[in-house]
Amino acid sequence: MNTAHRRETGLRQYAEVMTVDAPSDGSPAIADGLIDFVFAEIWSRPGLSRRDRRFVTLACVAAADADEPLEQHVYAALNSGDLSITEMRETVLHFAVYAGWPKASRFNIVVDAQWARILGERGLADTPPDPLLPLATESDPELRLQGGERSFKEINCIPFAPVRDNPYSGAGILNFVFGEMWLRPGLGMKERRLVTVACVAFQDAELPIQSHVYAALKSGDVSFDEMDEVALHFAAYYGWPKASHLDSAIGVQKQRVLAEATSEAAS
Amino acid sequence: MNTAHRRETGLRQYAEVMTVDAPSDGSPAIADGLIDFVFAEIWSRPGLSRRDRRFVTLACVAAADADEPLEQHVYAALNSGDLSITEMRETVLHFAVYAGWPKASRFNIVVDAQWARILGERGLADTPPDPLLPLATESDPELRLQGGERSFKEINCIPFAPVRDNPYSGAGILNFVFGEMWLRPGLGMKERRLVTVACVAFQDAELPIQSHVYAALKSGDVSFDEMDEVALHFAAYYGWPKASHLDSAIGVQKQRVLAEATSEAAS
Amino acid sequence: MNTAHRRETGLRQYAEVMTVDAPSDGSPAIADGLIDFVFAEIWSRPGLSRRDRRFVTLACVAAADADEPLEQHVYAALNSGDLSITEMRETVLHFAVYAGWPKASRFNIVVDAQWARILGERGLADTPPDPLLPLATESDPELRLQGGERSFKEINCIPFAPVRDNPYSGAGILNFVFGEMWLRPGLGMKERRLVTVACVAFQDAELPIQSHVYAALKSGDVSFDEMDEVALHFAAYYGWPKASHLDSAIGVQKQRVLAEATSEAAS
């Protein structure tokens, strides 16, 4: 597209995605980068829905510690109606697990403030929040661990679970992360995958990025083409170096999933 | 101290802290930076014990995504006897909560590998790990939440707890982080404080850094002078920009704790 | 140098680099760390110019999420005259690509504020910003991609470019990052290298750190000795664990560049 058309597309996309007009800022980062590239050429792409792009974006801006973009994207996601407040709050908890509680604490505060702003703008009273109890998962420690082992296998698409008698994998992973957190209602499995993939991509530890990209593809929750779009979208919101690593991991895991499908078809 | 003496001190400190000889590497980053500054002038300072410095260091290297330093520091902490394997494993879980599970996953793998290496070097068989069950905390959801509210107040040294009916603060903070994780045996409160302060300092969200520095000082678990040393040690392992922010937070929270002490003494 | 002389050197260097007096803060992190080490012993080293050190520093402080150091370093870089406002704004765009838009967004806001502060202090009116259009690069998508492939090879010093038909490498890398961003006037190639190396070092994905260190050395834009100084400077501003990884990558890539030079000389 030509230069003027590109700018126009960027401004229109910005307004649609962010639910407010684009800033009139001619600096290279904003005009050439954010409007002409991120909005004109990334958000406008058809391969991943705008709603799905929100989960990748929210994880990245909540990780990046820049208050204003976080406030703007939380507002936009809620104000557009793309995410309900229940989904947003559940996203904060999922993010807490994969990016740490301190960043999630600020994310949670921003959600409260932006939701209050939206309710104020619309003249609406807040509705009571979803009650925490009863939990959807077991209370008995042994049953929780068994549930955690089961869901660890199902969600990670692998036939084994880690050992119980280790604080990280027992009290943490089996008891809470897979025994409770992933099983909570309020957020779909695809959405949890998108938040997780974004988080493991910026956290950048070697095995989790491979295992979560694999599971997202293997489960079919995220298609191959959607995952390619995740890598591009992530690049814009977290930078090319980590996106390059994510892109490599996607290439490896696609091959693995395809090889397994071929092998299963043959047997 | 003069240049030769400083280098010598750095090499000796390196050997004592890392339990292996320093690398013979003349690059500025290693010779002028790591040996002459980090080991000669930071690890050697008396204001914070070598064992205490380990917890700050481990959190920083586990956050930094650099495999080799993480392996070296896990090995050194265990090989020196400064941390038991139980304490190290509990540190991984505590780190998972404050820095996210993906980085903790790698940390956990590194702990397994380095512990196996040490056992191999010593010709020892591994002892069975501490059993996970029974948990020290309640199983009933209502009782867990009540316990979480109580320990949230005690550990944070504040008179209130967050709302239950919010996934992040209810299912996350009250139910797991303060209802279970902080209350586990295997790691002392001071050690948990040191890991937490390091994590909130690199995560750098506005409120958690203030609240955890406050609570560490207010509780008396970390003395004012020790906290100053934490800031310097953290600077070496995570860089001056975040350390500078931590240092400011420490200044603010010392004033707050002192003002409260004065006010309590007067009343 | 002795202790008193070192403190004095640190205070003088601080004043020269930061363009304001050093804070009178006796805490270990500031006095023993920042003044005695970072300013007395790093900024004062001759192997990398003060202006060049600014680009490494700016990338690190913009990544580190600590507002005050970012404000101080942006102010100092502009106020000293080491960077023009055009170079600073272009640095923000380059940083956006390598560290993600959210952090760059805050960086951009800080640049605006500090530039306004400097103009105010000098009683100057702001000059109109450099107009964005016309772009220096092609608008036609096919020509942009061709340009992107060409500059990808030239800048990375390798004989191949990635596939177009992948969102990350096609729409992202070829179309924008190398088809447009790297080719913009307003910032020199050496400066872009320094920002990039700092960013890949803190992002710490495996391949980009190797490829960008290689290209910076291979192109001759950054000399071997300068790159060693980059590692030390980076250590101070982002911590030793990641600097240690950067230092290893530099060692490996120096060997590669030297081996290629030997092989080319022999043939």
UniProtKB/TrEMBL annotation, chains A, B, C:
This is Carboxymuconolactone decarboxylase-like domain-containing protein. The gene is pcaC_2. GO terms for molecular function: peroxiredoxin activity. Gene3D superfamilies: AhpD-like. It comes from the Bacteria. Residues 28-106, 171-245 form the Carboxymuconolactone decarboxylase-like domain. Pfam families: CMD.
